[in-house]
## 1
Amino acid sequence: MAVTVRPVTRPERDLAVQVYIVEVLKGLGVTFRHFFVNLGRHAAALAGVKAAPGAVTIQYPEDPPALGGRARTRHRILRRSDGSPRCTACLLCETICPARCIRITAEDSPAVVIEKRAKTFEIDLGLCVFCGNCVEACPVDAIRMDTGDLDIPAMDRRSMIWDLEKLMRDG
Amino acid sequence: MAKITLNGRPVEAADGTLLIDVAKQAGVAIPHYCYHPALGNPGNCRMCLVEIKGAPKLMPSCRVRVADGMVVSTESPAVAAAQSGELELHLVNHPLDCPVCDQSGECGLQDYYMSIGRYKSSMVEDKRHFEKRKPVGPRVMLDQERCIACTRCVRFLAEVSKTHELGMFGRGHQERIDLAPGKTLDNPYSGNVVDICPVGALTDRDFRYQVRVWYLDRSDTVCPGCSRGCAISLHTSTQRPWHNGARRAARIKPRFNPEVNGYWICDEGRYSYKALDRDRLGKVLKLKPSRAELSWDAAFSEVSSRVKGLLEDHGPQSLAVVASGALSNEDWRSFKKLFVDSWKLVNFAFDPAPDQAGEEDALLRRRDKVPNLKGGAALGFGDQIKSLPWESLAHSIEAGRIKGLYVVDRDLFGVWGAKTPGLLEGLELVVFQGPWKGSTGDLAHYRLPATAWAEEDGGFTNFEGRSQGYRAALPPVGDAQPDWRIFEGLLAGLRAGRAE
Ligand code: SF4
Ligand code: SF4
Ligand code: SF4
Ligand code: SF4
């Protein structure tokens, strides 16, 4: 695939930029604008003004993040109609993965037409960079990143490695 | 000599050479499946069509011999269209299950599709269905659907191994490869059909699903399986330990050497790689009287002073050396320097029989299942220095004439069987040096880990006296060192001992 390049012109560094002071004040301006806007909204909400929307900050994790429809979130492995994993252990996702966080071993599938299936399938979500390449690479649409789930932190690294069983829970 | 013009370039070739070979020598690769230099040119795959000036139609270059004045084009639009059309015909019934196909990454269909195909398939019909995943022998799996009917495998089994296990059955749309009635593909060269099959129809059951081929590193080396010394390529997988069952060596493929093995290797050699990741020694150990881990320096000085003591007390007759033809040329040289020139020993046993001898045949396999007895012979082992018969060595040990044994990479249980422990336990000093754990090593006073052939640079001299070099494909296991370094280390240890 051809690589597309978009040339970007750098903005001119004029005197106002070079003395910094002006830029720093502009930045602080933004900070203070948010501060006062939020303060006003909080105050209004406390005072019982119905239309006041409250703070613009999302109170994660109490409030769920509003994700775009195409957001890449935690992976899942899809199932066939009989419930077995759709993955054929072709290792294309493991090969394309830039973080090298997918580990697959293969075995014979009992069904001759399927031929091959994953014996073990692990994704180390602690290493994953959520690039989505694995989803693009899969020839049988067995792996997707559409769970909407970003709550994957754990108390140790080992538990951030998800195996086939875990990945198929919402498959 | 014939002078021809190939793609506008003048090329010279010996009269009667096949056009496809002439082109290859001139650096022009012509696509082909059925033609194999060692298996003839039935001309059934039609991939090698080229344009010859004056010929009324395109000609298969594997069937045409050069003639003076030929003007040949392998890249004209007509040739490109014909080759791409042929490929499309080959793929009419091909299942295209590349994602699950072990050949993927080294497949003739994939490669040619990318270089000369890239057409839009005009097939809308269903593909035909045959047997997939049919084990045709203990080492080979057949997928009839993937076969492109080039008949290479049939010709190999008819002309090279002469065992005729596979044949072409049915006609036209029903044509497929299958076992001849009542046969199993289990001849000692069966693995070669996997190498020559240009597609994934014949795959190696041992290698199946272990690791995808694009993860393999390839090293040119020499097979240590017998005294033929076939040229091989050792494929290793070290970057992703969860592949290939955590083993480093993944498979062996033959490497073309017209002087030694041609295009083939035997199955024994092909699967000999498995030993590389099984029962390996990596620690320098003193096992008796009590178990302790030593540094190499300590081992060198301890072993050499123990040997010195033994030789001073009982003379050079009292220490015998057991070796095998698994040593490289370099190892043999230091072996001689240490045991003959420095320690002045006289009792050596390195006869390959009974444990290192096996079947032989007229094709490749040799009786001696070690690669380098000739390397030792070049230094006099076998000639001036004869191998003691095993029985007389055992007698001398029983009679107390031999009080120490230095064993280099040989399991004595293979020679003496159950009486080995009795023999070894009576000895004052047993040193075992070698790459593999074994019952002999367990009975030694000192156990020194050596590298296997795949972990060192070296050379083997085959039974014809041809020396072939090989390169390390893998890092050593643990603290293992090449045999010659251990011999040199002991030499240095002995010298240091003398200077005291
Ligand atoms: S999203 Fe990217 S980094 Fe994460 S597993 Fe897939 S390919 Fe690897
Ligand atoms: S690319 Fe798809 S089918 Fe292939 S191993 Fe990954 S998830 Fe499985
Ligand atoms: S033989 Fe080649 S083209 Fe056919 S499925 Fe295997 S890799 Fe793909
Ligand atoms: S099995 Fe392979 S080598 Fe044999 S005819 Fe088919 S494609 Fe050719």
Note: Chain B is about 25% helix and 15% strand.
## 2
Amino acid sequence: MRTLIFLMLFSAAITAEAGAADKKKDTAYLKAAERFLKSDIVKQKNCNICHTIGKSGGTVGPILNQVSNRRSVEWLRKWLKDPNEVKPGTKMPNFQFSDIEIETIVGYLKEMKREIDGTEILARNSNLLEAGKDLFQSYDCLACHRIGKTGRFNGPNLTWLGIRKTRDWETVWLRDPDAYKPNTFMPNYHLEESEIEALVTYLESLTGGENETSREWESITAFFLDARPRERGRLVSERLACWSCHGPNLDEGERNPNAQPDGFVPPINTSYIDFEEEDLAAIIMQGSIPLKIDADGQTPPFSCPPWNDALDESELDDLLAFLNSIVPESAKWEFE
Amino acid sequence: MQHINFFQSRKTILFLLVISTFILGFSRNSNYLPEKTGSVSGVIKFEESYPKSKRIRVSKDNEVCGNIKKSPTFIVNRQNKGLKNVLVTIEGVKDGKVSSPQAKITIEQIGCEYSPHMQVAELGDDGISLTVLNKDGILHNIHSYLGKKTLFNIAQPKFKKRLTKTFTEPGVIKLKCDVHDWMVSYVILLKDQPYYSVTDEKGNFSIDGIPPGTYTIKAWHEALGNMEKQVTITEGDDSALDFVIKPKGR
């Protein structure tokens, strides 16, 4: 079933064409980005070592160009004042900005904003799918997310979203992410219902780029066939979203009340050495239901689903190779 | 105004004098007799095979950071397989040496590495101040953790040569740079614990001045965690004790 692997491949259309109508506005935002890059703030504080501003920059944080389309001025002020207060543990450091500096930055971020007219976007596209793709691009969802090899790492990889989520779920999510999952970092775009409908149609089409035939996709296919098992295994784990329970780096599980041993989904970055390979394969293929801490208490909300329907043998091997590759050196040794 | 202030401060000084003689009198432990103590020493080493320290490819700021870095987690001596940077402590010593807290410690960021990679300090009641020097002239951030919790995460832009932070709680503090994610350092703050040693290049440690008795001896390493053993100290003797490290699951 190598086709499944192709399923996991990438949709390149996202980056391909920016509508001709957008061209003029595009250069306007790039000019604003250029000014921000030349400002004392960026020159002295090097925001672009972690963020892409304009066309280039780092990949640690989200692409900043369209941040004013997703964050309010109040939110930006709070964030720049103390990121850790907004998102505990974030990699973005506190620059101990003065209020004037914060206003300066917010000003630059506002200048880079491209106005988005949802009605116009819906009207200029012939169908919902195209409109959804257009909106996805206009709102710059890839500032945090990834499809195929484009985008960033500050939100889940959406390449296979259509396989693992439903229209209804996506609709509820996009209406108000924070209502669904309090304190989530996913911004609320305050979208119109018609925009949500189009976006969801596009999101549902994301099943790994099977139908894409662009040049970029072909080159990725070639890369993929040459890739090492552990790299293919990483893609398998992203397709199946193991991170959604086991944590973004698979090293820190979600809360799972009343689940043995500690009320959390276990990390799996050390599973390869914690288990014999056959046992590990069996857990993954057949799933596992956690025991309760308090026998009379609630059933833990999460258990590990059986993945045998979603994986063929060679993909399981790839996944095991990947799990082997992520075991930290520190976990391989112990005091006698 | 001045007059009153002067009067008040004289009173304060007097008060402090009285208090400090009290504290000194108690803290200089009268039961501690250095000549009636023993010591413990040993090696912390790998049994057979040992990890080669991982090499890390540098993908940004290469002019300053270079192209390849070595992971500082396992620094193993090729001859005796001894492991550097293991903290060894003797727990629960009564009537022993008295802790001599430090007021400040320093760490440098140089060539996109922390120097030192690990340091241990004794923490007093007033806390300890950590000075972070940036010799690189590029942006680093200092993200400090106690366990999984972020204590602070502050940027040190290129022109900012030094910054200072104060710690008041003991524990293992991990410092990390999110720009250059291989940069990791450990600062261990001990409270009322003068009995410690950090292994050298050959994995050697030694602790002296321990009153005779049986104690728990604890080893801690950033990647291996804790290990405890019992050790008996006799007067005038050096007890030998080693810790051995082996691959997990064997």
Note: Chain A has three domains: 2-111, 118-203, 211-335.
